[in-house]
């Protein structure tokens, strides 16, 4: 399946010139390695899943596959977005399951060089540090590389 | 061509290709037991199938090959290139014969004795190597002479291992030259056949291939994904079409619509097949087997139209065939033996397939001799699978599981049918590979039953689509009994006892579950209490527990493909999966088992959870109790199941008749009784009444206030000294008096139970032994049975019952609870079957009367299974079983 085609190598954080899909949550710029991203969706109707953790926004049908939507804001412990802001979604695959990560807005795809990469500053908000693979220094702002595996880690999610 | 034959050809050709590879692998890793058992199984399958199809030549070749492999597997032979070559020769011969078979549909004439001789010789080398004394080389020589010629050079290992044999082997090796002259004679013939077969073989292969092709399931899966996408697009187009009245696209879009629907259906169909397809060849196999074995066998197949995912079907096909074969061969006795044990000549093998709680269940049962525990024990010990000490601590059930171990067969003779210890381990491996489980139940002398449980993950089920708080959900149709529309105006309205909603349905109170509350869907949709009285009630059944689910709307039923939920959601027990509906939206599939469990009803216990059950049993059974107040302040309770209805009686309508207060109710007079002796009811106002019903008679128990319905365990802490009470128990944290309903019933109709008995007319002083650990049930049941004319003896557990048996007591029937401390119902049944009381009918009382539970009970030896509290069912059951016994006697 597509997963084989797109399954990225493990450590692309240090792969020079790797491309990242950028997105914003609460004005902060984030990035996910482009090979992890299956799709970018505008807001679409989701089916609510009762009794699920609050960050599970629901499930949706993406070309015949059921995708679980996760509101990254809530996952990161941020407040809910205002009702008038429509989120966008980035679809990623993790352990054979598709997840749609709801973010505030999706930006362009940026190639990033190793020279601008830094480890997480130890003072980073613990919740953010848990899901951050590192930081890239861009002109005028910083980009947080989101660790999708940890973000979707079942055990971690349960504990959270 | 015969379908069976063509299938055999396709499968065998495939198997042979695989074998070639595996044998080469084996040569490289001679010590890999896994490769070896794979090879052995394949050859065994080929041999077995040949036998059924009546292909003696193939069978004998395969049999000889299998013998060699058997020795290798048992460690008697070490794999050498020589052995592998010979086995490969054997495979080549099989392939040649198959080639001709495919072309002519008949086995070619030919002589395989040379090849078989060579194969046998390999085996005999072992035998003679172990046994042949040095002074008998001549004999060995004769045996080996011809065949060894080719193999012996390679077969150094055998020669080295058995120095005594060396001389024997060496001697025939000398005439090798002479022998080598011989093979040329054989080989041209061999080549002839090959040449002859080759062109036809190629032609035939394509012919068979044309009729059926094997498609990678992933390809089908992708295809289905594409079709789903197509369906979505089609739906969007249709949506647009609906908005535009006049357009040229209308006709082509309609056409597209139909084609897409058909395409979708077709693609779905490629994956689903009725299980009957896997059973199609069984009748013939059973017939042939019964001829071969001289047994009379009847094959009963139920649920052949149960649909299964194709892939799953493929994987269980062989195990099923194997198990049916095993049942016929090992399970069923020959007619003479059956007659001796008092059974009819014809043995029955029953196949059953059905959907149950998200699984497909396939049962293979026979009424034969059952497993021989002692033999299994002996075999397990000799195989070193376990030791005496471990064995001593095992239950029969655990010991039976040994038959699923590799190389385990208790058949005395190796027949062409079975008995090589290949089989049950393969069956289990195949089933576990698709995430299924296999269980075995067997009763000596009564037969065995295998239950295969396969997850429904890929299967299609019919589901009812409902809406609640603007969300849609699917409920598997199988657990839905009926739909009831409830509104405040109609006959069916949702009533509340405190906050617990209930529904009167055909003289019963049906507990209701509000889906909205259960799923926490209330946010933003707060509806007034009045509105909530309207809605639909989906009456669902889990085991014997019926309950209603309140939903807002009911849509259609739809065929859905159950997909597992994402791992993050797996611990939500209320959903068994999710699915995509025809319109492309995702819905969650509700799991009635989960709902029942979440609302307090005990989960239907599974056979495998016996241990667990034993633990929870100590904590007591959960019972629905209706709590009310009457007279003094102490709360009182009766089991909800005994209450037919809750009514409010207008006290002005209460009349007096024959010194008793009565009310006209449903065209009859219903006596009203009060908790307190002689208390008259007030003259006006409304009076809550618990109605107990029996056939067309009702009695009302006037109470002050209905408090609540609670789920709690019922443990009588204090035995009552007052009449009308059974005792006191702690319910919902308060001391509560448990009311003896029987007392009030007889108070209203002095002949309440007596009349019943006369009507049933079967008591006649028959002696009944009632075994139940709960004093509440003993107190409830004993008077009831006595009233029906039986003479009742009660004991509180299995060991007391057995003690009575030993003491020489006689009973006409035994009624026993299943869940008891110490010896439970199942164990009691088993023990009773082996002693003096073996012919006494045994009726089980249980609170979880799930089909699997019932089956287990029947197998343990219970004559019948009755849900607790179901008085009529118990009396009917006793009536029936006792008259059966009479009839039989």
Automatic annotation (TrEMBL), chain A:
Cellular component GO terms held in the UniProt record: cytosol
Give residue ranges for domain CheW-like.
Answer: 17-157
Q: Which GO terms describe its biological process?
A: chemotaxis; signal transduction
The transmembrane segments are none
Q: Which domain of life is it from?
A: Bacteria
Which InterPro entries does the record associate with it? CheW (IPR039315), CheW-like_dom_sf (IPR036061), CheW-lke_dom (IPR002545)
Q: Which PANTHER family match?
A: CHEMOTAXIS PROTEIN CHEW (PTHR22617:SF23), CHEMOTAXIS SENSOR HISTIDINE KINASE-RELATED (PTHR22617)
**Name the UniProt record assigns to this protein:** CheW protein
Organism for this UniProt entry: Tistlia consotensis USBA 355
TrEMBL record, chain B:
Q: PTM 4-aspartylphosphate: list the residues.
A: 817
- Return the Gene3D superfamilies for the record: 3.40.50.2300, CheA-289, Domain 4 (2.40.50.180), Histidine kinase CheA-like, homodimeric domain (1.10.287.560), Histidine kinase-like ATPase, C-terminal domain (3.30.565.10), HPT domain (1.20.120.160), SH3 Domains (2.30.30.40)
| Ranges for domain Histidine kinase | 201-458
Annotated EC: 2.7.13.3
What catalytic activity is recorded?
ATP + protein L-histidine = ADP + protein N-phospho-L-histidine
Response regulatory domain residues are 767-883
rRNA processing is among the record's keywords: no
The GO biological-process annotations, alphabetized, read as: chemotaxis
Q: What class of enzyme is it?
A: transferase
Note the InterPro entries from the entry: Bact_Chemotaxis_CheA, CheA-like_dim, CheA-like_homodim_sf, CheW-like_dom_sf, CheW-lke_dom, CheY-like_superfamily, HATPase_C_sf, HATPase_dom
Endoplasmic reticulum in keyword set: no
* Chain segments carrying region Disordered: 166-187, 326-348
Q: Where is the composition biased (Basic and acidic residues)?
A: 327-343
What's an example GO cellular component term for this entry?
Answer: cytoplasm
Q: Which Pfam families match?
A: CheW (PF01584), H-kinase_dim (PF02895), HATPase_c (PF02518), Hpt (PF01627), Response_reg (PF00072)
Phosphohistidine modification sites? 44
**Superkingdom of the source species:** Bacteria
Which UniProt keywords are given for this protein, alphabetically ordered? Kinase, Phosphoprotein, Transferase, Two-component regulatory system
Domain named HPt is located at: 1-101
Q: Which GO terms describe its molecular function?
A: phosphorelay sensor kinase activity
Any idea what job this protein has?
Involved in the transmission of sensory signals from the chemoreceptors to the flagellar motors. CheA is autophosphorylated; it can transfer its phosphate group to either CheB or CheY.
Q: Report what the protein is called.
A: Chemotaxis protein CheA
